[in-house]
Design brief:
By secondary structure, the protein is an alpha/beta fold. Among the domains are: 226 residues, TIM Barrel; 126 residues, Rossmann fold (3-Layer(aba) Sandwich), CATH 3.40.50.720. Helices cover 34% and strands 19% of the residues. It contains 16 helices and 20 strands. The protein has an eight-stranded parallel beta sheet with strand order 7-6-5-4-3-2-1-8. Strand 6, helix 5 and strand 7 form a beta-alpha-beta unit. Helix 11 crosses helix 15. The protein is elongated, with a radius of gyration of 26 Å. It starts with 11 loop residues before the first strand and ends with a helix. The model has no long low-confidence stretch (mean pLDDT 95).
């Protein structure tokens, strides 16, 4: 059976959505630089005059090589169009006159038509029947075939993934169905959205500018960074798990390395609320390894089949390798990140370093510093956890009340306080920074509130981006078995951080 939209990059569908005809035209031209397939969201145009103007411009332009899919989704189907079914069909007919070969018709509209069929209406020649559920992933039959009646050529299911199992079910459905499109929505569904083409979805949607559905990946990112149209079942899948995860630059770091080294691999961000749910889905996604961040670094340790000796001592891992038999092997590269970042700035043997926090990152830092010959002090809200960590590395606990008088060579923040988007918070006050150097393990923003306080007091600072790069590059090399293209990976991450900080000023 011939694919609905062809193969390769043609299955990446750019979504052009804007309030004016002029802006819509601009988005269409941008999309066509990356793909030949574009969805035109006529319902986003602010009124009928703008719709008429845009379709007139489209007809005159005559994009002959493009595959254009017109959508005028009504509010009942989750769109922006306030008109009724007749008005929707009118604009879809006009879209055909303007050169659109496809249209998207929501199931709510089809049900209102005589005989529940679009046959006889001069809408675009090809019709994609869409089913949207923005609240949940509904129960779906094992597979769906295009109905003989109805006049449609393919079926699209776009559903909100509330848990990882929802994503798995959607991928299973599209794998068994023919002439179908699947769109997992929401941040939890984002990895499945990227893998959908690999599993047989006829299209993968991506906005050119503004997002039109939750959890979308921008078109350039979907094509250039994730290379969604090139992923196959031979592609090695890696990822990062955490909650939250939207801030993570690990996908940028690792995928940049894969592209530069020409590796058939992809790195995805997994929003994981329950660790058990993700581990259960590892075989379904075909995950070969994953990075672990808050809050799962210590919890995942208890689910490993084997662990490297140092990570066992630390009691936390940030790197998990899935072996061929499905067993999980844990390791820790956080400690390398701490050492490489601090060794450039100070002599660690004999130094006195305060670690704020007692979680997985704090444990990695404490063991790294102790092994390097530093005297480790721990300050944390959880007194018992602080005592256990201090005892494990032969250090001492320093209560918060003592910080204004205590002196250290360095202070290291290993808590999430000050992380984007709560970037205005600091784990310590300026008067508690009695040291020569302050390092924050948070890398977004690069200059946290803590580092700003330190700078104002003339204290040397180290951004968490240095640790992030070091531990991530060590992960990349662990999984790939070769040297990482470090300069390109570093350049990509720093450029993105600077761009994001500039955008938020």
């Amino acid at each position: 059976m011939k694919p609905l939209f062809g193969n390769g990059a043609h299955r990446l569908c750019g979504v052009a959505a804007a309030s004016t005809a002029r802006e819509m035209g601009k988005l269409l031209r941008q999309a066509l630089r990356l793909t030949h397939t574009v969805e035109l969201r006529l319902d986003w145009l602010e009124n009928d005059q703008e719709r008429e103007k845009f379709l007139g411009n489209l007809k005159r332009a005559g994009f002959r090589k493009a595959v254009l899919l017109a959508t005028c989704r009504r509010r009942i189907g989750g769109g922006e169009f306030s008109g009724d079914a007749a008005a929707e069909l009118f604009w879809l007919m006009k879209a055909r006159e303007a050169g659109c070969q496809w249209c998207d018709l929501e199931i709510e509209t089809l049900r209102e038509l005589p005989g529940e069929s679009v046959r006889g209406y001069p809408v675009p020649e090809k019709v994609l029947l869409s089913i949207h559920d923005f609240r949940r992933t509904p129960r779906l039959p094992q597979k769906v075939a295009v109905p003989a009646r109805g006049g449609v050529d393919g079926i699209k299911v776009a559903a909100m993934a509330r848990q990882i199992d929802d994503s798995v079910r959607l991928l299973e459905w599209v794998r068994k169905s023919r002439q179908a499109v699947v769109v997992p929505m929401g941040e939890i569904g984002m990895p499945a959205r990227i893998l959908a083409l690999r599993e047989g979805s006829a299209l993968a949607y991506a906005p050119v500018a503004v997002e039109t559905a939750p959890g979308q990946v921008h078109l350039r990112e979907l094509k250039v960074l994730y290379r969604a149209h090139r992923l196959t079942h031979r592609t090695r899948v890696y990822g990062v798990i955490g909650n939250p995860i939207g801030h993570s630059l690990s996908p940028l770091l690792h995928n940049t390395g894969y592209i530069a080294a020409r590796r058939d691999a992809v790195f995805l961000p997994f929003l994981v609320e329950r660790l058990e749910d993700f581990l259960k889905a590892v075989p379904e996604f075909g995950v070969s390894g994953f990075s672990v961040t808050l809050p799962h670094k210590q919890a995942v340790f208890r689910r490993l089949d084997e662990c490297e000796p140092l990570a066992t001592k630390i009691g936390a891992v940030n790197t998990v390798t899935v072996r061929r038999d499905g067993s999980l092997y844990g390791s820790n590269t956080d400690y390398l990140g701490v050492l490489r970042a601090l060794e450039k700035k100070m002599k660690l043997p004999g130094s006195r370093v305060l670690i704020v926090g007692a979680g997985g990152s704090a444990r990695a830092a404490a063991f790294a510093l102790a092994k390097a010959g530093a005297q480790v002090c721990v300050c944390a809200r959880r007194e018992i956890a602080a005592q256990k960590l201090a005892r494990a590395v032969g250090g001492e606990v320093v209560p918060r009340a003592a910080l204004r008088k205590a002196k250290f060579d360095a202070i290291l923040n290993a808590t999430p306080v000050g992380m984007y988007p709560q970037a205005g918070a600091s784990p310590l006050a300026a008067g508690e920074l009695n040291c020569s150097l302050v390092m924050d393990l948070i890398y977004r923003p690069m200059q946290t509130k803590l580092l700003q306080l330190a700078s104002h007091r003339g204290i040397q600072t180290v951004s968490g981006v240095e640790m992030f790069l070091a531990q991530g590059i060590a992960q990349w090399e662990h999984w790939m078995g070769s040297r990482a293209p470090e300069p390109l990976m570093r350049k990509a991450v720093l450029a993105e951080l600077k761009a994001k900080e500039k955008a938020h000023r």
